Amino acid sequence: MHIKLKTGLILFLVLVFNISFGQTRKLVKRFKLDKVSYQLFEQKVAAKHQKDTTFYQLFRVGKLKPIAKEIKTVYDKSSGDTIASASFKINPNSIVFYQSASNAFYHRIYTQQKSGSLTFKNNFIKTIREKRFLPAALPSPVSGPITDGSDKPDNVDFPAEFPGGINALRAYIANNLQYPDDAREEEIEGKVFASFVVAKDGVVTNIQIDRKLGHGCDEEVIRVLKRMPKWTPAKLHGKPVNYRFRIPVTFSLQ
User: Fold this and answer.
1) CA angle in degrees (0–180, nearest 5) for 166-75-119
2) Which residues belong to CATH 3.30.2420.10 in the chain?
3) What is the predicted pLDDT for the residue at 208?
4) Measured on CA atoms in the order 97, 84, 193, 203, is the torsion positive or negative?
């Protein structure tokens, strides 16, 4: 009897150990949508084979089961590449997950309703659509001091990165920028050059227009840049640092 109980206890402890080792969860954010309280957790599932996956899990406070589960990252151990990545943004009555994988880009939106329920909408962009406005070139670091005291923002080990990379940034701008009515009526075309700082916490700050186009185009670029989700901050000697970017945005009626 004692041998059987001991064997069963060992098997139980091994099972518990394997589960806790394979899956780790930590609290990312406590927040409210309207008046309803939520908690967002991050859970990493270490796979035995090729890919490790980290998930976001959204809980309503007081409930044991998650009401939403979204991929944060998928890491290919054989190639060392991150093949899918995501970030989130919390609005007054919604939380949006921005996901990028291969050539696809998603906006997965959970909206708090007055009835207390949480509705879901998925915006899927299969490929980056060619629109009348796209970054004319890749974002690039620009010279000049940044607030952490570094003389040049490009003296970092890892530059700041938009969630999903440059293709996801292009898709975000292409699908959020609107041609101002005044510029359209006056048949205004050209480029707006904007610069901004990706702060240590990934938030975009200090947005400036370096070269103006006018007729509402400058304000529209600022509006879209302000709504960007958090970036992965640049790192220097293993620590997050501020990082300045410049990006050109082209307005064309053709």
Assistant:
1) 75
2) 140-251
3) 93
4) positive
Give the separation between CA 105 and CA 85, rounded to whole angstroms: 10
CATH number of 140-251: 3.30.2420.10
Alpha carbon 78 to its chain centroid, in Å, reads 24
**pTM for this one?**
0.48
CA distances in angstroms from 127 to 64, 139, 224, 234, 244, listed in the order given: 37, 20, 20, 27, 28
Q: Measured between alpha carbons, how far is residue 98 from residues 51, 73, 218, 230 in Å?
A: 21, 11, 25, 10
Task: Name the maximum alpha-carbon separation found in the chain.
Answer: 90
Length of the chain measured in residues:
254
How far apart CA 141 and CA 95 sit, in angstroms, is 30
Q: What is the pLDDT of residue 152?
A: 44
Task: Count CB atoms within 10 A of the CB of residue 166.
Answer: 12
Other beta carbons less than 10 A from residue 9's beta carbon: 10
The single residue listed with the structure tokens 């990545």 is 85
Q: Report, as ranges of residue numbers, the positions in the chain whose pLDDT lies below 50.
A: 1-22, 126-153
Q: In three state form, how does the secondary structure of 221-244 look?
A: HHHHHHCCCCCECEEECCEEECEE
pLDDT at 8: 45
